[in-house]
């Protein structure tokens, strides 16, 4: 990644091949986009969705990258960009009656979160 000297300091994290539907992950990501770091943690811990746990781990990781690698204060961080993209589809065959098989498709997604300083 190439950065200019005048650009804002930002920490990004990318998780690939998360075994989850894109639509389920986007439902959670849309709630936290543009919010502060502490507010995001409170929202994600109280959400009843299964998709909130991997996203919570990503936000923790991005904040740790920002504080350790760039020396940014965690209280001043906010989520500037959060996106969910479709990943590969894992295909399995399930045996059925009379020697037939049934295709099982497991969708995956890629989640990218970018934290900036206020």
Automatic annotation (TrEMBL):
Keywords: Chloroplast, Plastid, Ribonucleoprotein, Ribosomal protein, RNA-binding, rRNA-binding. GO terms for cellular component: chloroplast; large ribosomal subunit. The keyword Ribosomal protein applies. It holds the Pfam family Ribosomal_L22. It comes from the Eukaryota. The keyword Acetylation does not apply. InterPro entries: Ribosomal_uL22, Ribosomal_uL22_bac/chlpt-type, Ribosomal_uL22_bac/org-type, Ribosomal_uL22_CS, Ribosomal_uL22_sf. GO terms for molecular function: rRNA binding; structural constituent of ribosome. It is found in: Plastid, Chloroplast. One of its GO terms (biological process) is translation. This protein binds specifically to 23S rRNA. The globular domain of the protein is located near the polypeptide exit tunnel on the outside of the subunit, while an extended beta-hairpin is found that lines the wall of the exit tunnel in the center of the 70S ribosome. Belongs to the universal ribosomal protein uL22 family. Part of the 50S ribosomal subunit. This is Large ribosomal subunit protein uL22c. It comes from Pleione bulbocodioides. The lineage of its organism: Eukaryota, Viridiplantae, Streptophyta, Embryophyta, Tracheophyta. The gene is rpl22.
């Amino acid at each position: 990644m190439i950065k200019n000297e005048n650009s804002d300091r930002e920490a990004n994290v990318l998780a690939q091949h998360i075994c989850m539907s894109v639509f389920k992950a986007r439902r959670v990501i849309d709630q936290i986009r543009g919010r502060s770091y502490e507010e995001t943690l409170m929202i994600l811990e109280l959400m009843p969705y299964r998709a909130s746990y991997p996203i919570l781990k990503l936000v923790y990781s991005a904040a740790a990258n920002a504080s350790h690698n760039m020396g940014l204060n965690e209280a001043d961080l906010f989520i500037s960009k959060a996106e969910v993209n479709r990943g590969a589809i894992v295909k399995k065959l399930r045996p059925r009656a009379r020697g037939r098989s049934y295709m099982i498709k497991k969708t995956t997604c890629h989640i990218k979160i970018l934290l900036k300083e206020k």
